[in-house]
């Protein structure tokens, strides 16, 4: 691991204090990605997501500089997360109750800090503390590095989804079930 790497959990209120840094890193990572990756759209998305019950952000910093982050939230019963999903999907796949599925909305690392284990550390820190039996995320089909990383971390592709955001691309829907912990004897 990288010397000086610090992972930190943030509440929504704490994240507001570093909102411009979060948006700035997002814009650096997705520079040239097109209209969907605009500052305005991302600020709206982040603002809406931060209001979700159970929203969680983990940042990665090296020597005080933000180099990556991951965030997500449990999907409520009336979620719009699955809107735009491509059929067929397994029966009941999109049914939510606020406790079934944790959605990872963003996992990003600055280009200069990639391939150093930061994404894996952020991922593991977030999913290790979750009580939901499954997690989901959306990843671009053409993002080979992310696809390979997610598969190596136990994620599987289920279908595709095109969010209802204007100019949104089509993503692969990936799911990971939580490992079942053995019951202690006694």
TrEMBL record:
Protein name stated in the entry: N-acetyltransferase domain-containing protein
GO molecular function: acyltransferase activity, transferring groups other than amino-acyl groups
Cross-referenced InterPro entries: Acyl_CoA_acyltransferase, GNAT_dom
PROSITE patterns (alphabetical): GNAT
N-acetyltransferase domain: residues covered: 7-179
């Amino acid at each position: 691991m990288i010397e000086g790497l610090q992972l930190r959990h943030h509440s929504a209120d704490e994240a507001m204090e570093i909102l411009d840094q979060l948006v700035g890193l997002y814009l650096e990572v997705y520079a040239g990605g097109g209209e969907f990756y605009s500052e305005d759209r991302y600020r709206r998305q982040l603002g809406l997501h931060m209001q979700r019950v159970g929203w969680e952000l983990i940042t990665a910093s090296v020597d005080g500089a933000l180099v990556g982050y991951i965030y997500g939230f449990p999907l409520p019963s009336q979620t719009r997360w699955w809107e735009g999903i491509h059929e067929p999907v397994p029966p009941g796949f999109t049914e939510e109750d606020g406790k079934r599925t944790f959605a990872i909305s963003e996992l990003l690392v600055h280009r200069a800090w990639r391939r150093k284990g930061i994404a894996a550390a952020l991922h593991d820190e977030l999913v290790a503390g979750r009580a939901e039996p499954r997690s989901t995320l959306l990843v671009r089909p053409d993002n080979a590095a992310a696809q390979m990383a997610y598969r190596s971390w136990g994620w599987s592709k289920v279908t595709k989804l095109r969010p209802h955001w204007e100019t949104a691309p089509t993503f692969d829907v990936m799911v990971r079930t939580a490992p079942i912990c053995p019951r202690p004897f006694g």
